Every structure is written in structure tokens, then in C-alpha cells.
Amino acid sequence: MKRICSLSIMTVLCISTAYAKPPENISDVVSAAIAYHDSGAYQRDFADVVGQAQQWIKEQAGKVIKPAIVLDIDETTLSNWEELRANQFAYFPDGTCDHLPQGPCGVLSWERSGRSSAFPPMKALIDEAQRLNVSVFFVTGRHENERIITSDNLKKSGISHWDGLILRPMNSYTSAASYKAPVRASLEQKGYTIIANIGDQASDLAGGHAMKSFLLPNPFYRIP
Ligand SMILES: [Mg+2]
């Protein structure tokens, strides 16, 4: 039992608590995540990582056989900020998404609406990689039934060409880490050298099969 007391003119107020230190209040965490985005710090941190990756790709592109990069999609290539903000970072897979900027916004409805936007630094990285004849592969945790809407959303956001879009088979629900690493291994077996693997989750990068991995900031959700 812990006692917190304050003294006012009239009385001494004590609030007794039965715990030592609870986790951070969820409302404060949500506010901090929104402030991280709205202050521009998120975009700066994101651009810093992309800049490092871009420099690395420039240095390595001419040194290896069949150079390639692997990119995740959500919060790596495409931003879902409107949906994330509306839902205050909760995950609602089903339901409509008809009341933005208010939530709730069903994630599948949001993705099917094709309103995700490309991160400008990542689009620039893709453009430069392609100028350097580096193959670009998207490896996403989205399932195969979202192939057309994902492809259309990429094109709508200005990304018109890629060498592979690899989505999860419909019956796959393993961790992202155990799904994505074998995909990269299969690209290597086809002769590609993955010079950079870029994602917003540690699970995008776990398991190797890339010369160098780059982790983008994402304090908004975690995918194992
Ligand atoms: Mg992602």
C-alpha cells in the first residue's frame, strides 16, 4: 500500500494505492504517439533511416550480382496514418471505414479503399534503386486476396513498377518473421543478392538473408 498526500489550506488529502508502479496510462501513450507524428519527429526519423539505406544501396548496387532490395509495405512504403489515427492505434480488422477522420475504421475496408499514401522518402529510394538497376521486391503480410487493391494503391501513390509483389498465402497465419525470412531465401535461390531489407517491424528483418537491414520507426503497433 502506498500513500500519496497533499496539504491544502483546509485539509490533508491522502489517496491510498495498492500498487507500486502501474504501466503507463494508455491515454498518455496514445497522446505521445500522436505528438510524435504531428511534431514532425516521426517523419524526420523515418527519412533518416531511409537516407542511410539509400546511401548503402548506392554503394553496393554495382558490386554484386543481381542486386535487389526487399521492402515491407505498411508503414514502410505506404502510410496508413489516417486509419491509425482514427482508431487511436487499436486494430479493427472488420467493419466499414466511412467516417474518417472519426473512427472506428475497419482495417480491411481501409486497405480496400486504396487510400494509403506513399512515404515520399521511400518513393525516392525506390526511384533511385531502379535507376541503379536494383530489383525491387515488396514482401508484405497482407494476404493474397489483397493483391489487386495493393497493386492499385501502389500505382495510385506513384510507384508504377516493381519486380515482385509477394503476399501471404491465404492459409498462412505464422509470425511475420517466419513467413518473410524464407521468402528472402527464395529470392536468393533465384540468384538475387538482397543488399537491403527495409521494414518497420523487427519481424520484417529477423532471420537474415540480406546484406544489411534497416528498421524504420513505428511506435504505433507491433507485429510479431
Ligand atoms: Mg509494416
Structure notes:
The protein has helices at residues 26-38, 41-60, 81-86, 107-112, 120-131, 147-156, 176-189, 202-205, and strands at 2-7, 12-17, 67-71, 78-79, 117-118, 135-143, 164-168, 193-199, 213-215. With 224 residues, the protein is α/β, with parallel strands linked by helices. The chain has a domain at 44-80 and 116-215: Rossmann fold. The strands form three sheets. A five-stranded parallel sheet has the order 7-6-3-8-9, sandwiched between helices. The protein has a two-stranded antiparallel ribbon with strand order 1-2. A two-stranded antiparallel ribbon has the order 4-5. Helix 2 runs parallel beside helix 5 (120-131). The longest helix is centred in the first third of the chain and has 20 residues, at 41-60. It is globular, with a radius of gyration of 21 Å. The two termini are 36 Å apart. The protein binds magnesium ion.
Give a quick precis of the structure.
The protein is α/β, with parallel strands linked by helices.
Give a quick set of tags describing it.
224 residues; alpha/beta; Rossmann fold; 5-stranded parallel β-sheet; two-stranded antiparallel sheet; 38% helix; binds magnesium ion; HAD_sf
